[in-house]
Each structure stands twice: as structure tokens, then as C-alpha cells.
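Human: Note C-alpha cell order:
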Amino acid sequence: MNFLAALAAVSEEAAQAAPTLAEKIAEVNKKINGFVWTNMGLILLIGAGIILTCATKFFQISHLKTWWMNTIGGLFSKKSKARKNKEEGAVSQFQALCTALAATIGTGNIAGVASAIVIGGPGAVFWMWIAAFFGMMTNFSENVLGIYYRRKNSEGEWSGGAMYYLQDGLGGYKHCKMLGRVLACIFSVFAVLASFGIGNMGQINKIVINIDNVLPLDLGAAFGGVKWTHIIIGIVLMILGGLIILGGLQRIASFAERVVPFMACAYILGCLIIFFMNITNLGAIFGSIFKFAFGIKAVAGGFAGVAIKQIITQGCKRGVFSNEAGLGSSVMVHSASNVREPVKQGMWGIFEVFADTMVVCTMTAVVVLSSGKIDLNTGAVAEGTKDATLVADSFGKYFGPFGTVFVSVALLLFAFTTVVGWSHYGYKSFEYLFGTKAAKGYKIFFVLMIISGAVMTSSLAWDISDTFNGLMMVPNLIGVITLLPVVVKITNNYVNRRIKHKDIEPMLSFHPEIQAAHAKDVKLEEEEELRQTTAN
């Protein structure tokens, strides 16, 4: 009996010591996530960006005026068609941009930048810029392919994305038909899974915790340690999300068109005020970024190498995470644009990365580096500094309690618009896998999952979906790189026709019937542009 009791005691101790299933999953996920985002992923993303930039002859620089005037620079011109849309099942070019920015401008632009600086030092910002510079052409190429290979679904809506250029583009190469289809399905599965986590529950959970910390209201616990306030906030967010998401892409785009410019401009304005309040300190701020970009000064030997690797990794990772160039996500909404020219939507992709990282992330970096929590001479972080609250603390330093509340509201809007934008990505991926009718059920389930994010007490779902988000890049970049000759041909075709005014046949669509229909409209546009050029 004593033996049995002792054996039972030992078994109980062993069971308690053994890792739970959740812990095992978390451990495996951590290894995969580290490999995807830190090792293979960054090499793939930056490498692809360099290849695409060289292949297109540094289009983001050599044709800077062209892409600027075809995007934000010409937006308010009377002749601009970027905000106009008369096509059923499509959205305007500007609405496509706003919806894409809704999904990309989020916590990565605020907490992510602060985290990069705390871990990698001020020099991480430099590598964030490098990642964005090359990411511009990755996003450009994705959008060009998205428009070129898109098609209309059974309800007359445009459907495009990595899954279609993998299926029809890569699949069109000799002996690659099955490979293209398999990679398209893998990408879609990863996108659907990521949409529920990083695009839904993870964002909602951050919103709920953020509001709960700001509101001085405690209604007690309902069940399992879940607060009533979390449940109530979750229900409100679910209703608001349902009203927008279930209305389809047109309602999502309309919401994004109104909210995204407002929230981005308000946040940038707040950052600019701090920027000008520190105008005399800007030399030291930007000096620290360049000074620490290649390692920590006065540290020699092996440790200096580790420092440089950490700086580069943090900067590139946070840069990619903020703008999602190379993941194949935003191309799904850009493909719904009413544009006829693939290169025109590609140029909006360049501006998307520029606005997201070069502008918003840089503004956040200036705020963080002017907070006094980062020593600009040594790169050291003040003791007790938390990257999650660093931006809010920095705003609080200059604006008092209002500044802290302002950042909380900004995070709320950024996170909620991310949920709305990602609902479309998941929907289109689900549509590819199971058809248009089944995808309607996805929307309902996506909205219901918002409440799950509100009551979620573990970050495991967020961590796993972050891995799936990163895994999306693998099939997507395989498609983009293998279809590089197509991107170059379409780009050269556009430059020769629209800039050099050569009389050649346009490359507009992979599908002959769409090519024929759009060619007439484009021909009229070219004739009008030529008349204007001759008149001037």
C-alpha cells in the first residue's frame, strides 16, 4: 500500500513537472516563428526586394515623379480618377489604398517601433528604412501581378491576390501547373488562419486591455477570470465590426476612406508637434540613428558582431511587420481597384510602404528618441522603460494626461481598422478555397470571433497566427520571384507607352477577354495624355 501511495505521489509530481500541451505547442511555435521571421524570412524578404529593385532599374527612384503624381501627388487634381469609381464590384484606387493601410497601419507602427529601438537601439530605425526602400518594389510587383492575373467572381467582384498569380502565373510554366495550385492553396490556408489571429483576436484583445486600463470601471469577473468589462467591450466591437464587415468590400472601403486619413493625419500631427518642440535636438536624434546603425561604438570583438546582427534584425523585422510588403496580404484589396493599368496600382503599392514606414514609423521613432528614455550618446535604455508604453509615456511627457489618452485612442483606431482590413484578406482567401457562397459564412464566423478576442486570456493564439502570417511570405515570394520577367515586361510596356509615348499594344491582363475590354479604355487615356503633352 505504501508502495502504491509512493508511486502515485511520484506520478503526480511527474505530471506536474511535464509540460502541458499548450506549453509544447508554444515551444514548437516559438522555434518556427524565429526561423520564419528572423532567419529565412528576413533573407527572403530583403533579398526579393533587392532583386526586384535592380530588375526594375530602381523604379522607386528613377520614376519618383511618375509614381508620386500618379498617387498622392495628383490625388486632388481635377483630372485625377483615383477617388472616382463607377464600376460595380470594384473600389476606387484611393479606397484600395486606404483599406490596405487600414490593415497595415497598426500596433507595429507604434509599439513595434518602440520595441525595435529598445531591443536594437536607435540604429534599428536605419534598417527599418532600408527594409522599406526595397519593400516598395516588392509591394509594387505584388500589385502589378495582382491586377494582371485577377478575374471576376460569380457575383461580379474582382478577385485577385497571390493565389491567382501562383495558380495562373507560376502554374503557367512548363511542368508547374500542380506546383502553382498547391502553393496557392497553402498561401490561402495560411492567410485564413492568420486572419483570425493577427487580423482579429490579437488586435481585439489589445483594444480591450487598452480600454480597460484607461477606463476607471471594474464590474468584477464573470467566469474563468474574464472581466465583465471585457465581455461588454467585446460585444460592442463585434456589433460595430459586423455592421462594417458584413456590408462587403464597398462598405469596408468607404469606412477606411474616411477613418484612415483622419487617424493617420491626427497621429502624424501629434508627432510633428513633438518634432518641432525638439527642433534643436533633431541633429542628435538622427545622428544617433546613423551612428548606431552598424553597431555600438566602443564595443569591440565578438560582442560587436552580435550587436550589429541584433540591430539589423530588429530594424528589418519591424519594418516588414509594419508595412507587410512581401507577405501577399494587401494585394488582395489592391486587386479590387477599378484601375485598368497594373503599373498604376503598383505605384500605389510604393506609396503604401512609403506612408506606412517612411512617414508613420519615422515619426514614432522621433517621438521615442526625444522622450529622454534613450541615451542618444550611448544608445542605452533608461532602467524600467517598457516598450509597450514608451510611446504613450513620450506623448504624456509633452501633452500630459491628454497625450497618454491620445495614444490609447490611436492604438484603438489602428487596431480596429486592422481587423476590418484583414476581414477582406481572409474572405478572399476563403473564397479561393471554397467558393463565393461558402465565403459568406466566413464573414459571419469572423465577426463572431471578435468576442473570443475580447475574452482571450492567453497570447498563444496571437503567437501562432503571427507565425502563419510570416509563412504567407514563402509561397507569395516564390510566385513574385518566378514571375519577375512578367513584372519587368509589364513595367517596361507601361513606361514605353505612357512616358515615352510609343505606339505599342498594352499589357493589361492575363485573361484575353479582360485584356480586350480594358485595351479600349486605356487607348483613349493614352490619346488624351498625348494631346495634353503636345498642347503643353
